[in-house]
Protein 1
Amino acid sequence: MKSLLLEGKLLAKKFENEFRTRVHKVAEKGMTPSLATILVGDDPASATYVKMKQAACQRVGLNSEKVELPVRTTTNQLLGRIEELNDNEKVKGILLQHPVPSGIDERVCFDAINAAKDVDGVTTLGFGRMSMGVPAYGSATPMGIMRIIRHYGINCEGKHAVVVGRSPILGKPMSMMLLAANATVTICHSKTQRLSDIIKTADIVVGAVGRPEYIRADWIKDDAVVIDAGYHPGGVGDIQLEPLKNRVFAYTPVPGGVGPMTINTLIEQTIQSAEK
Ligand code: NAP
C-alpha cells in the first residue's frame, strides 16, 4: 500500500496565498498588524525558529516586532517587556520562543501574555478554554497537526489515538484536541510502561517525545495514521519513519510535515486576532 503523504509544507504554502489577501484587507483599514517575537538568550535553534517565523510574517505582509533579550534577563524584566507588548495596539500577537533560559520562570511569563494576543496558544487560560470547548487560540504545533488531519479528511471519531509526550505546548493540548475530535486518547510519557504494546493498538500515533526515532516502526500497525512532531539534526523525527512509508495509511514527513504547519498556525492566529 502506498501511504498517503501528509504534506504540511505544501499545505502551508497554499494557506499563505489566502493569508496575504486577509492581511491586505486588514491593512486597508489603516494599520498593518504586527506579530511580536521575543527571543531570550543565544540558543541557535531558537534563533533559527524565530527567524523562520519572522520570514513567514514577511511573506504574508504582517509586520514583525523583534524583541531580543540577553541570556541574563530576569523574569521581572521579561514580564515588563510582555506588559509593554500587551499595551501596544499595533501588536496583535505575541510569541515568546520556548524554551527560555533556565533562570526565567517560563510559565509565569507565558501566562502574562494577554489571552487576546496569545496566538501561539501557550497560556494556562487558553489551554483551559480550549480543553473546555470555549473559543481560544490553540497551541500552534498541535493546532497545526489538527489542521493537517482535517485537510486530508482523516476522521478521528472512535479511533484510538496515542500521544507520546505530555508537554504543556505539545502533548497535553494535542491530547485535548484529539479528544474534542472524538478520538479515544491515551497519553504516554517517560513513566509509561509497555509503551510499544500501547502503540501497537493505535490508529493514530503522535510522536512528541523529543528523542530521535525513539518510536520504532515495528511498534506501529499497518493502517495507522502517523504524525511525527519531532525534528532532530540529520533530518529525522521522533518516529522511525523510513520503514513505514509503504505500510501505514498516512504519515507526516520530516522535514516538511508538522514544522511548516506550526508556523502557519501562528500566522493564521495572528491574522484572526487582527481581524477581530
Ligand atoms: P519536551 O517538553 O521535552 O517533552 C517530551 C515529552 O516526552 C515529555 O512529556 C516526556 O515525559 C516524554 N518522554 C520523554 N522520554 C520518554 C520516553 N522514553 N517514553 C515516553 N515518553 C517520553 O518536548 P516537547 O517540547 O513537547 O517536544 C517534543 C518533540 O516535538 C521534540 O522532538 C521537539 O523538537 C518537537 N517539537 C516540534 C515543534 C514543531 O514546530 N515542529 C514544536 C515543538 C516541539 P515526562 O513528561 O514524563 O518527562
Protein 2
Amino acid sequence: MNTDSKQPHSNRQEVQEHLENNLMIDTLAGRATEGPPVWLMRQAGRYLPEYQEIRAKFPDFMSLCRNTDATTEVALQPLRRFNLDAAIVFSDILTIADSLDLGLNFVKGSGPILSHPISSPKDITNLPFSEAIERLEYVYDAVKSLRSALGKRLPIIGFSGSPWTQSCYMISGRSEALFHTAKRFAYTHPVATTALINELSSITAQYLLKQYQAGADILFVIDTWGGILSDTQFQSYSANALSDICASLKRMKCPAPVMFFSKGLTEKRIRMLKNITNLRCIGVDWTANIESLQACFPDLVFQGNLDPSILHAGPIATQQHTHYMLNKVNKNTHYIAGLGHGVLPETPIESVHAFVDQVRHYNIKDNNSN
Ligand code: CP3
C-alpha cells in the first residue's frame, strides 16, 4: 500500500502522528489494528436533540454553517455521546455551490433550493469560479476551531461533495429523486457538463487542501448521486473527476488519505478508481457485496455497508444486523465500520449506541480464528 502519508510534510503531519486515537489513520495506511474503527456519515445533525437546540438559534442552515462556535459545538455533540474514532467538520456539500452565487437556501420541508440554477452552457462560463476558494474561508475556520477544541484526541475528516453531486444540485436547483434535470442537461450539453465538472474538480482539490492545512487529517469526497449515472458517465463525471482531484492534491503535496463514497458502486466502477494512489478507502452502500469487493480489491479499505434504515427498527435489530455485517467482512483486509449512507433524521439514539457498541465489542481476532 502507498505510504505517502508517512513522509514528513509540515506541522500538519506532526499533529497526525501524535493523535491519541490513530485507529482511522492506521487502518487507512494499511497497518494492523485491534479491530475496525467506527464513525458515521452525518453523525452530527437532526436526530440529536442538542443539534436541534443549536439549529433553532439560527434563521437558516447556512448561517449555522458560517458560525464557527456553532459548527464546533455540533461537530463535538456526537463525540460526547458515542465512542467514535473520527470527527467530521460540520459543513455541507453545497458550500461550493453557495460560493458561486447560485442563490442557495435551505427551505424547511423542501431541502436545498438554488434560485439561480445553471440552465444553459452560458450560465457556466459566467460563474465566479475564481472567487470560490476565498469565499469558503468560514469552512477552513470551522476546521481550525474544531482542531483546537479537540486537541490531539481524534482525527478530523474534511469533506466536499463530488463534482457530479454538486452539479446535480447546481443544475436541478433542488433535490430530485433521480436528478433528471441534471441528467438531461448532461446528455444535451456534454461539453459544457465536462467543463463544469473540470472547474469543480479544480475548486474541490483546493478546497480540500485548505481543509487539510486548517487541521483535517482525512479528506472525504462524497458522490451521493454517482449511482444515477450510466457506467460511461460515471467514468467521465465521477471517476475521472476523482482522479483529477487526487492528482491535484498529490501535486500540491497534500499527504492526507482520501476516502470516496458513491451509491451503487460495483466491481466495474471500483476498477475505474483503483489506480488512484492516494485514494485509500471506498465507502459503499447496503446494496454492495462487501465480501466480494474486498476479495477483488485487497489493497483498498472499505467503509460502511449497513443500511441506515435498520437503525429505525431499533437497537436490537441494529445490534443483530451489525453483528451479521461484521461476520461477513473479511478480517484480513481493512475495514471501517459505518453506515451505507448518512444517519437518517429521527434515528433513535439508542440504535446509534447499539451500532457503535456492537462494533467495539466485536472481537475481530476471535472471529478470525473461527
Ligand atoms: O456529521 C456530519 O456529517 C455533518 C455534516 C454534513 C451535513 N451534510 C450537514 C447537514 C455532511 C457531511 C453533509 C453531506 C451532505 N449534504 C450530502 C451528502 C451525504 C448524503 O446524505 O447524501 C448531501 C447530498 C447534502 C445536501 C443537503 N444538505 C441536503 C439534501 C440537505 C437537506 C436535507 C437533509 O438531508 O438534511 C442538507 C441540509 C443539512 N446538511 C442538514 C445537516 C445537519 C440539515 C439542515 C437543518 O438542520 O436544517
